[in-house]
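Progress note, project year one: complex with DOR.
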Amino acid sequence: MTKQLYDLILKDGICVLPSGIEQLDIAIKDGLIVDIGSFSSSQATRTVDCKNLHVLPGVIDSQVHFREPGMEYKEDLESGTRSAILGGVTTVFEMPNTKPPTISEEALNDKLQRAKGRAWCDHAFFIGGTLNHDIDWGSLEFLDGCCGIKIFMGSSTGNLLVSEDEALDEIFRNSRRRIAIHAEDEHILRERAHIAQEGRHPRFHPEWRNVDSALNATKRIINIARRYKHPLHVLHITTADEIEFLAQHKDIATVEVTPQHLTLTDEAYERIGTLAQMNPPIRSQQHQDGLWEGIRIGIVDVIGSDHAPHALDEKNKEYPASPSGMPGVQTMVPLMLNHVNNQKLSLQRFVDLLCSGPARIYGISRKGRIAVGYDADFTIVDLQAEKTISNSQSASKCGWTPFDGMKVKGWPQATIIRGNIVMQNDEVQGSPLGEKVSFIGA
Ligand code: DOR
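Model obtained:
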């Protein structure tokens, strides 16, 4: 038999290209997109019929917590990445608040090693900012498989914390890459800790971690970044006030919001209690409207899930003993497609926020767009599919979702990574083939 010209053809899909939306075929060879146009199925070893489906660049989730090493009962790299591909995600960036935390070359290499043959999607890991003065941030941040430094300015899950300006200053002074920031002000959180007393309802969570705790930290970190002309990425923005503030600082700061902050409001505390508890918190409708305005007027660059699974028996502890965080890597695409169907954003803006946005701000090489020469990563979606999100679909070890019972329109139909079909019709295919991501200039 003669060798086929291509390994795979995606046929007749409605493709979201940098130049617009067009019904075309995509030809793939050796893991790369090699041609876009019109091809016969006979030219390829395998063809996927994409008629009536939208073909998007692979979705990149640039904020997940996969708990390995140290808390594998909540999640591990295998289960977390399996959730990702079932949710149409092709690449993840994983956070450093594991046990031990990812704060050294050894810890980073350990994660990369653990991911080999077990990760279902492509991946990179953050190095956690710490108070250790002996760390050479400038070399750590550019290690292979590292997506950059992540700093917690306020305490959250784990013990990574850099709360003081001097210490933050030191990291910014000694690094170059875009730093990802969890902006909650530890001083304000401590002053207000009495609000989250034992016996209080979880609805007090956003009152404890109030608007000022978020806004103040965001203002402080922008000041520091300006001092060093250092780019930063402010994670999971939750307030209308921060959107308004960050609009003045787009020359230095990129911005993330999460699907849960765009979908849930403080009503969720009454309905699902501590399952709605996360840091920074789910807030009022007014703040959610502010986040949507930030998406509409171009302040928000990226949507990331902040997938932060905890076991149900932990979440069922009485507030505030219940841990903060909720899973999300598997539900990000369906929730955001549902918002597309509800006209909250266009499909092109979806691709901008979930595919090309992360690639642009972190400088990922060969990902984030459908173009010749790029990795053949695709999230193929059925915009017409109507489904109900349920706990039983969850591949995460935590086994629950705050969106259990929610009806959505729009669903990932297949996930393709470097030309390999790893998910189709809600079924995992093949074996874990995830590789570390590479970065421009790193
Ligand atoms: O709610 C949260 N949970 N916020 C964070 O910043 C950390 C995360 C976790 O790791 O559980």
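The first helix runs from residue 77 to 86.
The mean pLDDT is 97.
No further modelling is planned for this target in the current period.
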